[in-house]
Amino acid sequence: MDKELSSVHYDKYLQLNKILSAQKLRSGEFDQPAHDEMLFIIVHQVYELWFKEILHDLESVMKLFSEGKVQERDLGTAIARLDRVVKIQKILVDQIDILETMTPLDFLDFRHYLLPASGFQSFQFRQLEVMLGLKRENRISYTQCAYSGVFSEGEQKILEGLESGNSMLSLVEKWLERIPFLRMDSFHFVEEYQKSVQNMIRKESNAIDNAIYISEQEKGLRKRMLGETNAYFKSIFDEGEHNRKLEEGQLKFSHRATISALLINLYRDEPLLRQPFTFLQKLIDMDELFTTWRNRHAQMVLRTLGRKIGTGGSSGYDYRKSTADHHRIFYDLHHISTLLIPRSELPELPPELRKKLDFKFSIDPE
């Protein structure tokens, strides 16, 4: 039997007594209350609340992608929820502006009371990193111990379970591998794309040779740069080369998944590919904003602490800056931009394929 619906009070519904009584100044326990410690606590509590919402939304998207075939309506739901995550991430970055109203001297009033507490001990953020696809072997460590060593045994088991299961990265890869249209009787995407790339590079090379406004030295430089650009295409045309880069850790997506992502980006204007393209863009937005947040956090640490060692034992600024550069998840999607060619060079889709990529709606004749 359903519960009887009753009235609820705002305070009770939000459990404000618990939330608003959760700010305990560590400095106050030593009879040296520091005014800005309240700000420090609240900002980090808000971070954890936003992490909880991001995990809630990300889990729901991963569930949609774990069930095999992703329906169009489900893809729309995934896009909407990732868009919310992206908007939350922008708030995470903006919160640093609020934290920076606390000056270095203000922070030093209570910093020594915090040892060895550190943001590295945020279990929710570690969950988020693992769920997105950051593997243990790809982490930059700030101590000689495993990153999970600061957590309880139960929390370590949760992280191990997440690491052994599917991540957002692996689920997206499998989804991309299932995308059709790469090869049909009348259209082989990679072969047609390769012809267009070669034609584009030939045109650019001829344009350099025929340019009358640049020196021979500049022409040579531009031709070398064109040759380097051409090398980026090698892993698309040579699956063995792509697999070699996978083994070396230079890439994360399989050859087929990469080609599918490329096709979606090149033919994004086709109606059926608009949602897949938007979804991939949200993943890039998410990746970019986590990098922005890490960089912004590193700059805040440098401004506030200089080169001091962090309370958790890290090198402080240097560690945070290095994670911003190396803890990206979806950089394969960023690299797709290197492989794009102008719309004028796109291989023409055969009519039957273009029809499949269009929305269909018909009304039975009266």
Key words describing this protein structure:
366 residues; mainly alpha; two-stranded antiparallel sheet; 18 helices
The number of distinct helices, counting runs of at least 4 residues, comes to: 18
Strand element count: 2
Provide the helix percentage: 55-70%
Quaternary structure: single chain
Major beta sheet, strand line-up: 1-2
The biggest beta sheet, please? 2 strands, antiparallel
Measured distance between first and last alpha carbons: 48 Å
Strand content: under 5%
Estimate the global geometry from the Cα principal axes.
Answer: globular
What is the string of SSEs from the N terminus onward? HHHHHHHHHEEHHHHHHHHH
Rg is 26 Å
Ranges with pLDDT <50 over ≥5 residues? none
SS content category: mainly alpha
Average of pLDDT: 89
Give an account of the 3D structure.
This protein is 63% helix and 1% strand. The chain is mainly alpha-helical. A two-stranded antiparallel ribbon has the order 1-2. β1 (183-184) and β2 form a beta hairpin. α9 packs across α14, α10 runs antiparallel to α11 (216-232) and α15 runs antiparallel to α16. The longest helix has 32 residues, at 274-305. The two termini are 48 Å apart.
